[in-house]
Design brief:
It is a single chain. The protein has one domain (19-88). Helix content is 24%, strand content 13%. It is built from two helices and four strands. The strands form two sheets. A two-stranded antiparallel sheet has the order 1-2. A two-stranded antiparallel ribbon has the order 3-4.
Length: 90
């Protein structure tokens, strides 16, 4: 099989929460843990990057780049970085 790139989308598989089904995605692609969970439930065979500890919870506290406590909120790691960077520029 020839691989053009690691993102071999099949439009026939559709989307869940605005992201393509049937490909491997990581936590940084999502806006929230709940969005990630919805996507994982629709794509259980592609969840290795969002459920890195295989506990069934997508982008959980113990998953790589999962949700963390961030200045009094629970956010995905990349959202915390973005929030802190935008707070510093004000």
């Amino acid at each position: 099989m020839d691989w053009a790139c690691s993102d071999n989308r099949n439009p026939a598989l559709g989307q869940t929460i605005g992201l393509p089904n049937g490909i491997f995605l990581a936590c940084y692609k999502f806006n929230s843990q709940s969005d990630t969970q919805i996507w994982l439930e629709a794509n259980p065979d592609f969840g290795q990057r969002v459920d890195t500890n295989s506990d069934g919870q997508a982008c959980g506290r113990e998953d790589y780049a999962g949700h963390i406590e961030c200045d009094g909120e629970v956010l995905l790691l990349h959202k915390c970085w973005s929030k802190r960077n935008s707070d510093e520029t004000r």
